[in-house]
Amino acid sequence: SAAEKGGHDYFMLKEIAEQPRAVAETLLGRIGTDGRLSLDEMRLTDDELRDIDKIIIVACGTAYHAGLIAKYAIEHWTQLPCEVELASEFRYRDPILTRSTLVIAISQSGETMDTLMAVRHAREQRASVLGICNVNGSTIPRECDGVLYTHAGPEIAVASTKAFLTQLVAVYLIALYLAQVRGTKWGDEVFAMIQLLGTMPQKVEQVLETVEPVRELARSLAGERCVLFLGRHVGFPVALEGALKLKELAYMHAEGFAAGELKHGPIALIEQNLPVVVIVPSRARPILHDKIVSNIQEIRARGARTIVIAEDGDDAVVPYADTLIRVPAVPTLLQPLVATVPLQVFACELATARGHDVDQPRNLAKSVTVE
Ligand code: G6P
Fold this sequence. Notes:
Elements: H1 11-17, H2 19-27, H3 46-51, E1 54-59, H4 61-78, E2 82-86, H5 87-90, E3 101-107, H6 113-124, E4 128-133, H7 139-143, E5 146-149, H8 162-182, H9 187-197, H10 200-209, H11 212-220, E6 226-231, H12 235-250, E7 253-258, E8 275-279, H13 286-301, E9 305-311, E10 323-327, H14 336-353
Parallel strand pairs: 1-2, 1-3, 3-4, 4-5, 6-7, 6-8, 8-9, 9-10
The structure holds 6-O-phosphono-alpha-D-glucopyranose.
Subunit structure: Homodimer.
Keywords: Aminotransferase, Cytoplasm, Glutamine amidotransferase, Repeat, Transferase
Active site: 366
């Protein structure tokens, strides 16, 4: 009913709108007044966390994209090696695991069969397994050694939105907590990041307040056959997530690419008026930022219609953007929290303009509990 959807036409719209609160709830009680994190509820002791020498993340779908972003944060803040793998691949491999390996399983539902099987596969080899889940008491957290719950609230729409943002918050919390417990060469930065995490609900809110032009853009592209997404660093998984949303909801051909790979193939796809969404890294990392500005110029010279997501104040992109979507400036590693939101809105509106029910996309299920 309309009441269940909080006055929105679809659960997905309601869930997109709930993201600032979902992020806030997932942070709640986890940042102490002294500015340090406390995640005792995780059930893994600090001694156990100090013994870890490798992290492997397993997940499916959108949760896998949260895992890809986690790798950048974990390796930077903790200097622990981190691999990310699709649960459906991991479970049939012979991964090299020891008692010092921490496997992190990310799953909104806590019931995805492939992720559950990956958890069992890891535990059989004596690795510790930490779940990041949204549904209390679901199967995956019950089978894990530890769990950090996201507090997104119930997610009804098949395509994940608010759960994804809270999964990002959870992986940032875990990465920063590991750094806090184990020590890191980035001590000051870790402390500053914990503070900044607390401001992310407002940043996400800010994106939602300025997202109307994205809706207009989406409607104008409803007749397109294909959209490409480009990103670098954490913007690469954001590009993958933007493309996945468009496939799931609008049934369009959509691909995400690492911008550095353009010249190794994807650039051959560029033709007149092809819409290409580019996620521009923060200017705080000039090396990443300037490279992507060149990439935008390259694709535009070949006729692409450029849709550029860039932080407030980034003027370098203005001459090359056919459409410019602004997001608040935040540190590079946290940018997925703001950059993903316009892509969710884009896919949702484009699908609606094409006449599709965004809550119940064809052929998809909210949680895939079968082989
Ligand atoms: C299904 C859903 C996706 C979700 C994936 C993993 O494919 O349609 O939105 O990302 O499962 O689900 P999980 O519950 O494990 O996060």
